[in-house]
Amino acid sequence: MKYPLLIEKKNQAFGYQVSVPDLPGCQANADSIDQAFENINAVIKSHLTILSEYSEPIPNGTSIEKQRALWLANRTQAQLITDNSTEVIWGLTELDITPYLGKSHKINVTLPELLISQIDKKVSKSPDYKTRSGFIASACIALLNK
Fold first, then answer.
1. Most CB within 10 Å of its CB: which of 20, 80, 117, 138?
2. Could you tell me which of 77, 14, 7, 89 has the C-alpha nearest to residue 40?
3. Helices assigned H by DSSP within the chain
4. For residues 49 and 90, what is the distance between their CA atoms, to the nearest angstrom?
5. In this predicted structure, what is the pLDDT of residue 90?
6. CA distances from 12 to 16, 63, 78, 79 (A)
7. pLDDT, tens only, 18-72
């Protein structure tokens, strides 16, 4: 799963604050941008662990463009003027969410031969999917999060 990150530096005296708009309340502080990425990945994993423990769904990541537009839309004109000194950087982090989806269960699925062939071709050509099951699970997650 890819999650957009909002990294803000308010002024030179303080470090950076990084947040994950798709995961409300998921944020971390850091002294550098590199450290911000490291810190937020640990925070995201903790956040997803808690969601998993309470059987809450894992939110889908959205695009940076969508989150930037929402962020700008939520700023008032006064905030945009006073935040002029704020350095804002958008980034992206990618995490394997499989460990947070619960225990795997083997099921029997019947699919048409042509569809299986298309899935296998996609899996063999794309590093995003390691197995046929991974591809099907990703497709299901994407559809369920619509």
1. 20
2. 7
3. 33-53, 64-73, 77-82, 113-125, 132-144
4. 24
5. 93
6. 10, 29, 21, 19
7. 999 999 999 999 888 899 889 999 999 999 999 999 989 889 899 999 999 998 8
